[in-house]
Amino acid sequence: MNTVAAFYPVGTPGQPWGASERAQWLERQVVQRSHADEVVAKIDALRERFDVSQYGELDYPSGRYPLLAVRSRNWNDALPVMLVTGGVHGYETSGVQGALQFIDQHAADYAGKCNLLVVPCVSPWGYERVQRWNALALDPNRSFVPNSPAPESAALMALVAPLKGHIVMHIDLHETTDTDESEFRPALAARDGKPFEPGEIPDGFYLVDDSDNRQPAFQQAVNAEVEKVTHIAPADARGEIIGSPVVAPGVIEYPLKALGLCASVSGARYTTTTEVYPDSAKATPQQCNDAQVAAVIGALDFALLKG
Hints:
Elements: H1 19-27, H2 35-44, E1 51-60, E2 63-71, E3 81-86, H3 93-106, E4 115-119, H4 124-129, H5 151-160, E5 167-175, H6 178-192, E6 206-210, H7 216-226, E7 240-241, E8 244-245, E9 251-254, H8 256-259, E10 270-276, H9 285-306
Parallel strand pairs: 3-4, 3-5, 5-10, 6-9
Antiparallel strand pairs: 1-2, 2-4, 6-10, 7-8
């Protein structure tokens, strides 16, 4: 079995990180792209057609970041609410850009049918640094819990809280990348003082259903739409995807609330987490964005049909 020492340069193998190790990790993080240019500017361009609000602000020593949400212009309390989130893991580019593309190209199609609430980039600090965690070395997508220690997660939970009971569908847009295996899982093992256990990265698109609220027909409807754009990930030799049993083609399950995952925050009847594979030789960056858009459309159309 390989150990943490063979894979990650921060900390002592077998010992969880303390403040000094977190600081050392933080020093390694560098800005690689601009949230202002690649996200905020695109959201600003939507203001003529949609309502844009700032629901919070990240205030880290390295900078301040607005947390922005986009809503249907003519919000109607008689209509169901549909929630789309992206960029909970900032490095997962198509989740952010796919959400923005959906708003720009397709959100108007749902005017009068539902209220859309889209949060394209939950973790702007992570977006700029192409990083899974936030500046506190916390994973926002394990932090959707009461009194969350992650400000990104706490802010989104506060945004969504008044809408609970009205949200019918929540789709959370993610990616599974080669760097999960080369960087982020080794970092997690190192941070927690555990051995790194290598896994496999699936080639293709898949979904994560809620094991406590299974909606198999919903997942299949989403995958059917995505399949028009890109390929669905096959199960590995063990019949699994990233260590979880495949319950239907391109579908695995997690207990969302118990794990503190974003898709648990809304209390929606229909929830799913998308996983795009941007490192596939069979998919371009635009295809990855298109797959996220297709997933949102598939999710919305099913939820509106079934109610």
